[in-house]
Amino acid sequence: MRSYDVLIVGGGPAGSSAAWKLTRGGADVLVLDRERFPRLKLCAGWITPEVVRDLQIDIASYPHRFLTFSRLHVHLKGLHLRAPCVQHSIRRFEFDAWLLERSGAPVVQHNVHNIRVETGGYVIDDAFRCRYLIGAGGTRCPVYRTLFRELNPRMSELQVVALEHELEYEWKDPDCHLWFFDKGLPGYSWYVPKQNGWLNVGIGGMAERMKSRRRDIKDHWSIFTGMLGRSLAVGAVCEPAGYSYYLRGRADVVRRDNAFIAGDAA
Ligand SMILES: Cc1cc2nc3c(=O)[nH]c(=O)nc-3n(C[C@H](O)[C@H](O)[C@H](O)COP(=O)(O)OP(=O)(O)OC[C@H]3O[C@@H](n4cnc5c(N)ncnc54)[C@H](O)[C@@H]3O)c2cc1C
Questions:
Q1: Of 50, 92, 105, 109, which is least packed with CB atoms within 10 Å of its CB?
Q2: Residue 189 pLDDT
Q3: Whole-prediction pTM value?
Q4: pLDDT value at position 174?
Q5: Are the beta carbons of 18 and 55 closer than 8 angstroms?
Q6: Which atom of ligand 1 is nearest to the CA of 164?
Q7: Nearest C-alpha to atom 16 of ligand 1 is from which residue?
Q8: What would the 3-class secondary structure string for 134-149 be?
Q9: How many Å lie between the centroid of ligand 1 and the Cα of residue 266?
Q10: DSSP E strand boundaries for 16-78
Q11: If you measure from the C-alpha of residue 79 to the centroid of ligand 1, how many angstroms do you get, rounded to a whole number?
């Protein structure tokens, strides 16, 4: 069995950021992720200047697609508001793999199933032992499930269902657009262009509210992509993939002994 100071479950932005900091501090870290990177992550890929600052990203030397938009369009109940901004888009497929590689931590492709607490640490699937354990496995993180679920139960009223598609498309409008509560959607939809002819479009809504209104997210998707096909994305063929996650509720406990949760796991 291999032993480490720190095992991190999940190599998305939360896991790779933890790995980056810990590795730079001299810790012996291993990242476990069930996927091989680069991996698909459903996400609009909008990042704020704060993300760029906190992750100390030198935009000039970032080797993948990076687009800065200087204007944000907000569509709300028939109103169209334009606001100047400095915001960015990346492709998560590229960004997450780059962050993980930059962390300098070794990564093993492994789907974590079983976590056992033992004196002085944790044992994962009888294959990896560590003193500190970080759960950064997203919404379905096994560290959250095993050690934190009862302390921080998910609140069903905060569950969001989302559909999105990232496609190669020669967009004409380089700005970002958001539509709030359009056609009864209890949430919002987006148009986020990426550098060099990529585009991300998607919608997300509160699951319980849609259910109570007997509306399916797919109905909203048809309305949304119909509107895009007549305006910002003429001729685009949008084939969505779905995901569900929880908005941030009260995460009262993010540390339990030497185990931690971060990112969507928290
Ligand atoms: C449709 C959609 C659009 C979004 N748009 C934006 C946006 O524009 N901007 C923004 O900032 N945020 C956006 N978000 C939110 C953002 O994607 C998440 O908050 C972010 O990815 C969380 O990062 P994370 O590292 O916690 O988890 P993740 O990025 O989900 O990474 C978790 C990792 O854990 C691994 N893992 C899971 N289970 C196991 C296991 N059992 N064993 C081993 N590995 C495991 C997974 O393979 C994955 O690589 C969006 C989310 C969705 C769903």
A1: 50
A2: 98
A3: 0.96
A4: 95
A5: no
A6: 1
A7: 43
A8: EECCHHHCHHHHHHHC
A9: 12
A10: 29-33, 46-47, 66-76
A11: 32
Give the C-alpha separation, 214 to 187, whole Å.
15
pLDDT beyond 90 at 252? no
Which of 33, 176, 217 to probe ligand 1 with, by most ligand atoms within 8 A of CB? 33
Helix 13-24 and helix 92-103, axial crossing angle in degrees, nearest 10: 20
Distance 264 CA to ligand 1 centre (A): 6
Pairwise pLDDT comparison (152 vs 5), residue with the higher score: 5
Residue closest to 7 by CA, chosen among 97, 145, 115, 119: 115
Kindly state the tokens that stand for 52.
């760029």
In 3D, which of 42, 33, 17, 61 has the Cα closest to residue 200?
42
Q: Tell which residue, 176, 175, 173, 188, has the closest CA to residue 224.
A: 188
Q: How far is CA 59 from CA 23, 51, 195, in A?
A: 22, 12, 13
DSSP string, 148-199: ITTTSPPPGGGEEEEEEEEEE---S--SEEEEESGGG-SEEEEEEEETTTEE
**Average model confidence (pLDDT) across the chain:** 96
Expressed in angstroms and rounded, the spacing between residue 80 Cα and the centre of ligand 1 is: 30
Does the beta carbon of 240 sit less than 6 angstroms from any atom of ligand 1?
no
- Ligand 1 centre distance from Cα of residue 230 (Å): 31
| pLDDT tens digits, 89-99 | 999 999 999 99
- Would you say 260 and 15 are in contact if contact means Cβ atoms under 8 Å apart? no
Residues 229-250: tens digit of each pLDDT: 999 999 999 999 999 998 887 7
User: Is the pLDDT reported for residue 192 higher than 80?
Assistant: yes
Nearest-angstrom CA–CA distance, 201 and 178: 10
> What are the backbone dihedrals phi and psi of residue 78, each rounded to the nearest 5 degrees, phi first?
85, -15
Whether the predicted pLDDT of 3 surpasses 90? yes
